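Margin note: ligand = iron/sulfur cluster.
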Amino acid sequence: MEPSQKLSWESADRAFKRIRPKKVLLQLPSGLKRKGLLFADEIRRRYGCEVILSGDSCYGACDILPPPIEVDAIVQLGHAPMRLRKGVVPIIFVPMLIDLELDRLIATALPQLKSPVGVIATAQHIHQIKDAVRILQASGFKALIGKGSSRLSSPGQILGCDYSSATEIASRVNSFLLLGGGEFHALGASLTTGKTVISLDPERRDATVRKVDQDAFLRRRFAIIQALAEAKTIGIIVSSKLGQKRLRLAEELLRSARNENKKAELVLIDDITLAKLQELGFDAYVSTACPRLTLDDGASLGRPVGTPGELMIALGKMHWDDYAMYHWGFTTRRIRRRK
Ligand code: SF4
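Resulting structure:
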């Protein structure tokens, strides 16, 4: 059976009433781009404003570029709201919610869960997190939800760049139940907490134990660290997207690289692509933008692209034993010298 999907317009209704935009830029993630005509019609019908469709990428709520034309608001469809520090125009989020068949899926997960259970969810399933806790409690399990950072829309949410709601409770639970499919979030939650993660995937009939092959992942990352250590020239990538821009961190990394006699420069990029990296021609890159592209899809970039932590290991300023997924809490100031 197809999982049921619905757009949640309530908060957008309030925002449109408050802002009263005459013209909006509509951003859609790639899975929804082909329905752009339908959604543009829906927004015109609901709010009576002009709509311009954005043809650019939109991977997450963070993916906001200052609009190159005058609009009164950006409407981002499909992602949960994110608090962005500086916006040039108001941003209106219309989240996409996907219902999991919780009773049935959790029943298949129970034999693999160890109480107390930490419950975490990706944005599309966060609306069901309290129901998941109730079902677990009714089955005799203790269940906890972590609040997490201010980057998250609700307690228990995880992002590919923010597992704070899981790490916050990791020492008090024996396993995690993840409402969300795919490998990346389960890998991140497992690597950052060291706990077993059982995921409920809308595309599958049973709960899935993510047996994360940490060794294979770390071997791949070690090769990148070696490439960074050997690189003579390093491009430190700063994203121009509002929710991914970390200029101060990039400047700290630049100083560290130059102190170790690397020829390094800051590079401002919106979407990181193979063509752009090849054209720029650095031996290796470090991205302070979304970690997903670097960690999940790095092989497609044609050049070694590391995370800030990986550069610090390559420069000998951080110990390999302290390896962690790059996340939004990472700053170079927190690094302990363990040499
Ligand atoms: S994982 Fe990447 S796309 Fe998702 S919110 Fe974080 S920075 Fe944005």
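The longest strand covers residues 91-99.
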